[in-house]
Write a structure and sequence with these properties.
Layout (H helix, E strand, L loop, with lengths): L1 H13 L3 H22 L9 H4 L3 E9 L3 H6 L3 H4 L5 E8 L8 H9 L3 H4 L17 H8 L4 E6 L2 H7 L5 E4 L3 H11 L5 E8 L1 H9 L6 H22 L8 E10 L19 E7 L6 E2 L7 E11 L3 E3 L15 E9 L9 E5 L11 E7 L2 E8 L2 E9 L6 E10 L2 E8 L2 E7 L13 E3 L10 E10 L5 H7 L15 E5 L8 E2 L9 E3 L6 E8 L4 H5 L7 H9 L19
Parallel strand pairs: 1-5, 1-6, 2-8, 3-4, 3-5
Antiparallel strand pairs: 2-7, 6-7, 9-20, 9-24, 10-19, 10-23, 11-16, 11-20, 12-13, 12-19, 13-14, 14-15, 16-17, 17-18, 20-21, 22-23
Length: 571
């Protein structure tokens, strides 16, 4: 702005005649036109997709029964040759419950999970393709001239997944699939080819889905060789350089085989382990690896199962009342079985845990796949929802009572991430004479827990979000903690096998086990592992493939399609 003022001031001082300005404008315009003409060739250009980028086409190759970790292990030359210009993963995921490829075929062609498309294993009788059509129908709606061809060895595949195609062939074996694709690639107008291979699955079901089995290894090598023949045929097309091909190579399902390291997540399910490659000449190389699944938490832990509990029999129980002020409760929980609305208590301080929340006090309990905080005081009570708890691994849970502008709120966190906030101003004083308990709290209308509990911390302050996030997935509390002076109790609940749960906080309020019938188990599990849903979203899944293809073909995805898949970028 100051420069502009100086220029304007200079113009006013000079007061050039209008004619001079006119001459300058003509000269500047002439100069700009000359520079502009230098950048634009004489030849007129058509800005259509066909000319500028090449007409987008797709070669879609699906193999049943190839585990991603197995195909990675053999270092297949033709598959590896695609990777410099590809988005790829050896840990992509099929549906975790599927035992036959049909469920995943449906996802690979609709872009939605089985809960929407309705195909269970190889049973297509309950399919919902009217609501969630196959990708071929969407492509034809966008461009009816697209020439679509499908080649498969499966009659189930052909009968259910090849509508709206220009050609679909049921052939004898995988070699015939390869030959049919090579022939189809010689047609000038072909725009979308699907090749479905089944031999790796047949061999794997007979001998095992692992490269340590020679027959299975040979089946993977044969698939890679067939891939090489198809890629060579693609590159030999006279118009290949002017075209714009996306090559998708993926497996619909993995296969059963004992694995050496089980992390208790979906990534240790060999049936769900697939591989996915999106390859195109304009893609940069991007490898999508197995996501971080948490830190190891190991030790000897008491199993709070049935009516087992630990309580504060001697010591100052009033320290753990929540009264009307600020507080923070933190703990680690590992559930041992699915919870189905039985509301088992995990940690609390109230005389009973019964339907209708009859007594004052507070409790952390489980419901479905998440956790809840419930409390009642002199003015009433209610509950605040926490987050989803991962199966078969430890989760960090936190409840924070904070006072802002004279109003009291409860905030919940799972693995350091904020979940929910609710006002509890009307609940009144939450004090109770009941002892602090880990595990079962007597009552009616609520079930019995089956959990491990550890690293329990109670604070007489509202820990802020950044402190919760920083320490949620760490074990232990020491004097370097920024709120150490507000620590009211800290029970590791690990390696205590003598009937006592020791308090390493400032008051030494040790808890006593109900009896000597506790079982103590040596655990070495992950802490703060994402849920299966969260983990799955971090790698390609079967229903992501149609979304990737729509993006490549420049087909605008509509919100009412309700696609579950995402588009993967090469950076």
């Amino acid at each position: 702005m100051m420069e502009l003022k100086k220029i304007l001031s200079g113009i006013k001082k000079v007061l050039w005649p209008l004619s001079v300005w006119s001459v300058l404008a003509i000269l500047l315009t002439s100069s700009c036109q000359q520079e502009f003409e230098k950048t634009i060739p004489d030849k007129m250009h058509n800005d259509s997709v066909d000319v500028t980028y090449g007409k987008p086409k797709v070669l879609y190759i699906i193999a049943d029964g190839i585990r991603g970790q197995s195909i990675q292990a053999i270092e297949a030359p033709n598959i590896n040759g695609l990777l410099n210009h590809a988005i790829y993963s050896w840990v992509s995921l099929a549906d975790e419950q599927a035992t036959q490829p049909g469920t995943n075929w449906a996802s690979l062609f609709t872009g939605v999970a089985k809960e929407k498309h309705g195909v269970i294993d190889n049973d297509f009788s309950t399919n919902n393709f009217d609501t969630y059509p196959l990708i071929y129908e969407r492509i034809k709606q966008a461009d009816s001239t697209t020439n679509i061809r499908v080649f498969t060895t499966s009659s189930v595949f052909k009968d259910n997944l090849t509508t709206d195609t220009d050609e679909s062939q049921l052939v004898a074996d995988d070699d015939a699939v390869k030959s049919a694709v090579v022939t189809a690639l010689q047609a000038e107008n072909v725009g979308f080819i699907t090749a479905h291979f089944s031999n790796p699955d047949k061999v794997g079901s007979a001998v095992g889905y692992d490269v340590s089995k020679p027959a299975y290894r040979d089946a993977l090598i044969a698939f890679d060789t067939a891939l090489g023949d198809m890629l060579n045929a693609l590159k030999e097309r006279p118009t290949y350089q002017e075209e714009n091909w996306l090559i998708v190579v993926t497996s619909s399902i993995g296969g059963e085989y004992p694995i050496s390291e089980n992390d208790n997540t979906v990534f240790s399910n060999p049936v769900a382990n697939t591989f996915t490659i999106f390859s195109a000449s304009r893609y940069n190389r991007r490898f999508v690896s197995k996501p971080f699944i948490g830190n190891r938490f190991q030790g000897d832990f008491a199993r709070f199962q049935g009516q087992r509990y630990a309580e504060l029999e001697t010591g100052d129980n009033t320290v753990y009342n929540l009264d009307t002020g600020a507080f923070t409760i933190e703990l680690k929980v590992k559930k041992n079985k699915a919870i189905k609305n039985i509301y088992p208590s995990v940690l609390g301080k109230r005389p009973e845990w019964s339907s209708g929340w009859a007594s004052n006090g507070w409790v952390v309990f489980l419901e479905n796949d998440y956790w809840m905080f419930n409390a009642r005081g002199t003015g009433g009570g209610d509950q605040v929802k926490g987050g989803t708890l991962a199966d078969a691994s430890w989760s960090s849970v936190a409840v924070v009572g904070v006072v802002r502008d004279g109003e009291r709120f409860v905030r919940t966190y799972t693995n350091g991430a904020f979940n929910t906030e609710a006002s509890i101003q009307g609940w009144g004083n939450l004090d109770t004479n009941a002892p602090l308990k880990i595990g079962y709290i007597n009552g009616n209308g609520h079930g019995e827990p089956d959990v491990y509990v550890a690293d329990v911390r109670v604070w007489k302050a509202a820990l802020p979000d950044d402190v919760i996030a920083r320490y949620a997935c760490e074990i232990g509390v020491d004097e370097n903690h920024p709120y150490y002076d507000y620590l009211a109790g800290y029970w590791p609940v690990a390696n205590d096998t003598d009937g006592t749960v020791r308090d390493e906080g400032p008051f030494g309020n040790h808890l006593t086990m109900t009896s000597d019938d506790f079982s103590y188990d040596r655990l070495n599990e992950y802490l703060c592992a994402p849920t299966t849903a969260d983990l799955g979203s971090q790698v390609p899944r079967t229903f992501d493939v149609p979304t990737q293809i729509y993006t490549w073909l420049k087909i605008s995805r509509q919100e009412n399609w309700q696609l579950d898949g995402r588009t993967w970028l090469d950076q």
